[in-house]
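Box 3.1 A note on notation
Throughout this textbook, protein chains are presented in two layers. The first layer is the amino acid sequence; the second is a C-alpha cell string describing backbone geometry. Keep the layers aligned when reading.
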Amino acid sequence: MKALIRTFIAVELDPGFREKIREIQGRFSDFNLKFVDPELVHITLKFLGDVEESRIPLISAALDSILCEPFETRVGGLGTFPKPSNPKVLWLGAAGNFRALHEDIENLLEPFKFEKDNREFTAHATLARVKFLKKDQINAFINTLKELKDVEFGSMWVNKVLLKKSTLTPEGPIYETLHTVYLD
C-alpha cells in the first residue's frame, strides 16, 4: 500500500501577529466557533490533499522553480466565507502579490494533475470555522465582524513558501514542513 500524506502549500504569518490573533479570536468567544491555534494560522496557497509520499521530492523540485519575487504584504481586515449572514469560515485578509504567487504554483504543479482551484484566489488566513450560529446570534456575529473588519495587523515580508504535511488529530492538526522554497 502506498503511503499518503495530507499536504498543502503555505506562507506562514509573522510570529509577532499571534497575540493579536488571540485577541481577535477572543472577541468571537461567545459564538460556537472552532478556532485555529494562533501558532498554526497561515495563508494557504494551494491545498494538495492526500499525496503519495514518493511524489514529495518531485513536487518539491517543481516548487523550487517558483519565479515570484519576495514581496511585502499588509495583513488585516476580517471577513467570512461564503458571506456574513451565513458564515462558515472567519478569516484574516492579506494584500500583496499573492495572486501571482498562486498562479505560479498552479502552473508549476500542472504536470501533477492536481485539481485547479475553480474560485478566484483570495489570500487569507483562517482564524476559525463556524460550527453553528443560532438565528438570534447572527446579528451579534455580524456586528462584531463589522467592528473588526478593518483591523490592521501590520506588514510582513513574504520571502518563502512552505510545502507542509498536515496530520489530523483529535486535538487539532499537527503541521510539519516538508520543503522550503526561498523566493529571490
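Residues 78 and 146 are 8 Å apart (CA to CA). The chain has a mean pLDDT of 95.
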